[in-house]
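Give me structure tokens for this 215-residue protein.
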Amino acid sequence: MTSSSKIAVRELPLFPLPELVLFPTRPLPLHIFEFRYRIMMNTILSSDRRFGVLMVDPVAGTIANIGCCAEIIHYQRLPDDRMKMLTLGQQRFRVLEYVREKPYPVGLVEWIEDQPPSKDLRPLATEVEQLLRDVVRLLGKLTERKMELPEELPDLPTELSYWVASNIDTIAAEQQALLETQDTVLRLEREAEILTSTRNNLAARAVLKDTFNNS
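Here you go.
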């Protein structure tokens, strides 16, 4: 009888991208032009339309070991067999080993998920959402533009944590750390810290702006 852990392991074509972290449920538009990835996408389109996105650190020259599976939702062929496509983040994975590198990278991966929550996530999710609204309001005030959060902001805490991680104004390494976190509580808590720091910084700038405008 096959164990559940073995069922969760599969080969997956891999697409490393510089300083880009994909999260579950989040869209990722792509322009495919490099020859080996055109081969990869054509192969994927004839199967299950899924491949893995891994963040490349261009400074260290390293490729992350944990990434997010993407599914091709829509694609358009361009001249020279280039492609524009819209993909959507699915589940996260860990690379166990590289099976081959040519004509494109393929890895043996295992799926990973958040562990079951140890407490009610909704109060923390509500706090993060309020911090988001504060940040957007302050940004609107500073830029003198009307800014609002999208109506389709996720209700479920885990999906909200992915939305925030994908849209938060921080470096790719921080986003990668949020992707690798396998605890929704810890992810939301870290996002609350980042958003609180951002809010406080924007609030201070808003006070300075008001002071100069009123002087």
